[in-house]
Amino acid sequence: MNISRIGGLVAGMLLLGAGTASAQEPITISPEKVQKICSQRVPRVEAKVKALTDKINGGPETLGSKKWIEQKAADARKNGNTARADVLDARLKLRDAQLVKLAKAGERVAKFKTEHCGSK
Questions:
Q1: Residues 28-53: pLDDT tens digits?
Q2: Label partner for 42 (CA 20 to 30 A): which of 21, 79, 109, 120?
Q3: Domain count along the chain
Q4: Considering only CA atoms, which of 99, 26, 21 is closest in space to residue 58?
Q5: Distance CA 120, CA 113 (A)
Q6: Pick from 106, 13, 90: which is nearest to 52 by CA?
Q7: Residues spanned by the domain of 75
């Protein structure tokens, strides 16, 4: 799955259990729906967050990891292709931002799991 799409997936899943900060009434869902989220969605989201985090933090042999991008940027600079190196440097900054988003998503899933799924 594309790394940028995980935010939408996690946000959609978490909105089911989160109330809004405004004066609106909180969203309520049936116990059956909560059970389904706890047994199906939460484990899938946890697995995706872990897989994407592991990929981003992978070594230089892992396609798309920070170290892989750093290596490609260094190679581009070595070959005199500074424009490509600059693009890759920008991608590195995005990876850092994605790690922050993934960490927050993991925290939100863990909080939902604690509050609604019991000791699973």
A1: 888 889 899 999 999 999 999 999 99
A2: 21
A3: 1
A4: 99
A5: 8
A6: 106
A7: 31-117
Q: Is the pLDDT of residue 112 over 50?
A: yes
- Cα(4)–Cα(10) distance, integer angstroms: 11
**97: helix, coil or strand?**
helix
- The tokens describing 99, both together, are 């790690």
How long, in residues, is the chain? 120
Non-local CB neighbours of 67 within 8 Å, separated by 6+ positions: 58, 59, 60
* Spatial distance between the Cα atoms of 93 and 2, rounded to a whole number of angstroms: 17
Q: Is residue 77 part of a domain?
A: yes
Q: In the prediction, which pLDDT does 94 show? A: 94
In a domain, 104, yes or no: yes
In a domain, 3, yes or no: no
Which amino acid is it at 42? V
